[in-house]
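Final report, closing paragraph on structural work. Over the funding period we assembled a curated collection of sequence-structure pairs, and we close with a single example.
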Amino acid sequence: MAADPHVLLSPAVTNLRDLGGRATADGGTVATGVAFRSAELADPSVGTDAVLAGLRIRTVVDLRTEAERSSRPDQLPAGAQLRVLDALADLPGGAAAQLPAVLASGGIDALADLDLAGQMLAVYRRLVVGEAARQAYAGLVRAVIDAERRAVLFHCTAGKDRTGWATTVLLLAAGVDEEGAMEEYLAVGPAVRTTYAPLLQQVGDAGGNPDDLRPLLEVRPEYLDTALALVRERFGSFEGYLSDGLGLGAVEVEALRRTLRTDG
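Its predicted structure, as stored:
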């Protein structure tokens, strides 16, 4: 299998990827070196990592909740500024929030009683229509189109859900079709599986069924499909989502398109 050209290997951060290089539906290409995605930046070596330094990151956008940030605060690449844009500030009790309590209490068997797949679908719907999410993704767009803030690295914890939707928004805005956006969304699967392998092992060792937990820890086509369907249902089109959902003006939308593309 050919190596994924979007993967950037860094000892300091996992799931690091450049959004650039994908073809747009009208024959263009997404620009490299503009927007990057990753998992959390909690490792102390982030500030001295040569790979991150080479990306010339100017803005790090942290999409995580306050609890996530407090327990594992961001370490910043040299020269970068932090912008906190909590995409789920108004969803305090989702599936991920229940998990630590279940594991800490030893209630491994209770995992089978949680509809984690259903809760993940609810999270993806919230990423589209939730007020905090719409503010967060509008803020991300405005960071990307600000030349003084580029390049931008955005992340959540594992870099799959909040980050996955952010990536989808940027790619679709650049002109990538939904098939290409889905390809990128699913491409983080191997990195995410590596990240969560110890947790699944922990559950198995404790006598639980790791499969009960997988809906929370995987990227699945139906999750992104749910978000895209809600965009069409609520806003009529992706363009409607950008204008009415994120509150972006026509000048901002066009600036985003130009920023994310290289057509020559």
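The longest strand covers residues 35-38. The chain is about 50% helix and 10% strand. We thank the funder for supporting this effort.
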